[in-house]
């Protein structure tokens, strides 16, 4: 059965505690509001309109009564009385969003992760009836993901509390890649630690079960007593009142206990009877690791009676429990599975009740694209209204903008036109980082082009293609080197490519044509040597992209130019973006080039990100001293600090965090900034939701301010110290006047202030003074 009005979108749907109704968000009337639906659809939905709930991030119905808790983008924790239709603010943080609001089993308390400073998070409890707030963990770093023990003894959470540094293998640095693990808080002051003697034990558990399950004594011969001798079973007493959770708040922050498990990267923790389950994720590289953003970890269980942890299954992205904690549903990438809690699955086959895998192919959704597009347009507009960094929308009449483009939504005829319309509407903000990407497009044929990592020129005399350059790149990395540069092939510049997969090339049949749909495939190449000898056939693997190879060749060519022009005294590095790749490229270049007397830092074409402050911090280091040994060269203190001048190159294609890097480089007076004015987009984003068809829209939320220009970098960029243009004819000729000007600038600075080691003076003597003669 499908719930919700076809004119709107429903999200954050959950069951109410009676199991007969659903609580959800719907924007069928233009604005999001809570709605209560009966599962059978027998009665019309009840809409709680007029409540100022913001843009909800999470929605949790209470296990008892007619209440629901929600958190929103305004950093609020709100309580909704579903029966009265009223709203109450329970908590708010000026430092960030409130996460992971969870109801206690008796419905009297809410536990949640609260940002008490801009850098730290604590666990708080809210007593719902009175609204009293209690912080129950001490500020340290991050306390997140609280979860209640169904037996009412503990509150679990994931804590980032144990600082065990790991040394960096590339440079003198330490980091904390594994800092979290599960913790628990004993809710009553009389509870002992379940991890130590005196807490829950295997013996006490078995003894308790033995007493509970004790039956009539057997006859002397060991046989059970006859039926007529058995006492009649007493009638079941009426169900007692629900147990009220006891929480002793005094000294509660001193009752935090760590699970005896290794430090790791933990995601969630949840309580079941006598046990706790949690997810533990592997560590992987930001470049080489999981590229789809869905980390898949291990589900593990800790048994308090056994005092041991056990592996259950892997491939878990996230999980949830049923209200009685007897079943678990988990997501593995784009798949769902339901299992008995804390039991290892016996069947991992096709979707079925036995395996637990859910056949998502059975889900059918009836929708009208024009209706969906209208709703998406409204929601994209609404998210900008609710999350744009300036409440007055920078003075723009945002309601008028909505009405201006609204008539066009009825005229669009494809999903691509919807995208164009949203871009135009958001573009009225006159602000960077208002993007629209992704969405439900019809799949198109994909014929991935193969590449050889060479430059070719057609030779009409031989009807073949002459190899004019073989790109070298990183010969150890097949993604960043030419297949024709592999050891043993013997291919040289001047050799001719005659055929691909035994199909001969000519003026009308190019290598590009024959490499269509060959990305990553083993192909046959026929190569004729430049000296006219017999052609050879060899097998190579076609590249799926030449991007990394050509990038590496460009960087190394620039580095060689700088080295040659400075007799090896000046280094060069390029930063392609301010994300993982740019962070890696910076250190790849910096750690080997910072030993030279001067340095050129190139941020042209920088795609932005968020690591600029980490890189600026390195470049801003000042040499304060040296470590001097007997045999080696003196080493600087701090490590990797520069001896001489540094010059940066930027251009109009350096944006976002590339803008910021360029501006701060100049603001700190680290050296001349050479090139062209940067892109001019420095309002950051943190998208929390997607549209109905999976589209991501971004809302400019974090605007950058600097003491010299205020808000002035946005929509303007930063002006270089020395402006240098690259004319079209320079580009065609392979001439780089910006790089040449940077080399000239750093050499001039080195001439004005020659970088050299200090005169350390004679080494001190430690000779004992002569004793006076008696």
Provide tags for this entry.
5-stranded parallel sheet; 6-stranded antiparallel sheet; 774 residues; 11 helices; alpha+beta
Q: What would your notes on this structure say?
A:
There is one protein chain. The chain is an alpha+beta fold and 774 residues long. The protein is built from eleven helices and 42 strands. Strands 27, 28, 29, 30, 31 and 32 form a six-stranded antiparallel sheet that branches. Strands 33-34-37-38-42 form a five-stranded parallel sheet, sandwiched between helices. A hairpin with a 5-residue loop joins strand 13 (142-148) and strand 14. It is globular and about 90 Å long. 31% of the residues are buried. Mean pLDDT is 92; it is low at 203-212 and 214-231.
Number of helical segments with 4 or more residues:
11
Provide the helix percentage: 10-25%
Amino-to-carboxy terminus distance: 111 Å
Q: Radius of gyration from the CA trace?
A: 34 Å
User: Regions with pLDDT < 50 over 5+ consecutive residues?
Assistant: 203-212, 214-231
Shape annotation? globular
**Care to count the β-strands?**
42
- Broad structural category: alpha+beta
Portion of residues in beta strands equals 25-35%
Average pLDDT level: 92
Sheet with most strands: 6 strands, antiparallel
